[in-house]
Write a structure and sequence with these properties.
The protein has eight helices and seven strands, in the order βαβαβαααβαβαββα. It has helices spanning about 15-25, 40-55, 75-80, 85-95, 105-120, 140-155, 170-195, 215-235; strands at about 5-10, 30-35, 65-70, 125, 160-165, 205, 210. Bound molecules: zinc ion.
Length: about 240
């Protein structure tokens, strides 16, 4: 039985749900995020606010929630700014995805997470990747995760498990999962403290949380939330 986990935790809805999943399963949970200067400081602030709220509102989880790590990945800015990636970024944007797409970014995240997990003695790496909503990101697909699990385990000679609780569910069921894990208190915490909006908007408050309401991330989050409420109503 695995007892320890490292959660890739950005402070968004998905990774907060993944963190709750890990806290409900494992005895020691650490968190990691990457600062690559394309993020609004609002996201980094949201992480801290989610962590603090989990500690104060979920006494059963608080003792399991251990160190938080922030790794500087400024190098990613250099890659995304080259003209080589410009065409790709434009195409992804047409598909409703952000123009901040960096090829293989998630592969880098997982490699660094595994290196950190190795040093910290953590067995499971939990990440909120999902094929249902972001199939445009090839480095978030299930096959990629399985390949990474094998490559990292072989390359570091340590058996890692990459766990992806959201892989096959949509945004509405991510809210459902949060409700199952931590009840209305967790849903409320996610609404209030997690951050998804690409524009870093913490001015406009909606039923589903803070955000501009118009960017692809806000639209996805809002759509999922109202669908979730509908599913609650019919359940
Ligand atoms: Zn937005």
């Amino acid at each position: 039985m695995h007892k320890t986990a490292l959660v890739l935790f950005s402070g968004g809805q998905d990774s907060t749900t993944c963190l709750a999943h890990a806290l409900s399963r494992y005895e020691r949970v650490e968190t990691v995020a990457f600062d690559y200067r394309q993020r609004h400081s609002v996201e980094l602030q949201a992480r801290l606010s989610v962590l603090q709220s989990l500690r104060t509102q979920f006494p059963a989880w608080a003792p399991k929630l251990c160190d938080d790590h922030l790794l500087d990945l400024g190098v990613l800015g250099q890659v995304s700014e080259t003209s080589l990636t410009r065409d790709m970024a434009f195409k992804m944007e047409q598909g409703g995805l952000p123009n901040t797409f960096v090829p293989g970014r998630n592969l880098l995240f997982l490699t660094l997470a595994a290196a950190l997990a190795y040093r910290r003695g953590l067995e499971v790496i939990v990440t909120g990747v999902c094929e249902t909503d972001y199939s445009g990101y090839p480095d978030c697909r299930d096959d990629t995760m399985k390949a990474m699990q094998l490559a990292l385990s072989l390359g570091m000679d340590r058996r890692f498990l990459i766990e992806t609780p959201l892989m096959w569910i949509d945004k509405a069921d991510t809210w459902v999962l949060a409700h199952q894990l931590g009840g209305q208190a967790l849903v409320d915490l996610i609404i209030e403290h997690s951050h998804t909006c690409y524009l870093g908007d913490r001015v406009h408050r909606h039923d589903w949380g803070w955000g501009c309401g118009n960017c692809p991330a806000c639209e996805l989050r809002a759509k999922g939330f109202y669908l979730y409420q509908g599913r609650l109503g019919t359940a």
